[in-house]
Specification:
The chain has one domain. It contains 8 helices and 2 strands. The protein is globular, with a radius of gyration of 16 Å. It starts with a helix and ends with a strand.
Length: 155
């Protein structure tokens, strides 16, 4: 899912949170949730830098758009044979770390946890609907399960 889609869905989510929890969660807290629900995708950019040895953010965006189009043009069986990349924030491990940081260090990490959780939930629904596989549950599991597949960039 593209960052702009995550941003729009994130705005809807924080508006809902505002009406449900406005005295409990401040506007600053809602902003942290919104930003973290979008900025979690920084790992996609880091993967692009590692893969292509290029720092250009616009080129990275074009590369992902090209790969998304390629992925969506494939049938269900072809998609199962493709490795999408290693995205270190997209798994239960980052949520566990944020949960403990929020519990022991600062409540700000709880807000980041909520943003990450929302992002991963939306990604999970998107994967079920469009990619027909259950990835992004665990970074470690995905790394060992999917890394032997053909990289989408080489197709």
């Amino acid at each position: 899912m593209l960052p702009q889609t995550h941003f729009i869905l994130g705005i809807i989510f924080v508006i809902l949170l505002y009406f449900l929890f406005s005295p409990i969660i401040s506007i600053f807290g809602l902003a942290i949730i919104l930003l973290s629900s979008v900025l979690i995708d920084i790992d996609h950019y880091v993967y692009y830098i590692f893969k292509k040895k290029d720092l250009n953010l616009f080129t990275a965006h074009k590369w992902y758009i090209k790969n998304i189009r390629k992925l969506y043009s494939m049938n269900k069986e072809q998609k199962k044979k493709v490795y999408l990349g290693f995205y270190f924030f997209h798994g239960i491990e980052s949520l566990i770390i944020l949960f403990f940081l929020g519990f022991y260090l600062s409540p700000i990490f709880n807000l980041i946890f909520i943003g990450f959780l929302f992002h991963l939930f939306v990604d999970f629904i998107s994967e079920i609907m469009f990619e027909h596989r259950f990835g992004k549950l665990s970074v470690i599991y995905d790394l060992f399960t999917f890394r032997k597949l053909t990289n989408l960039d080489t197709i």
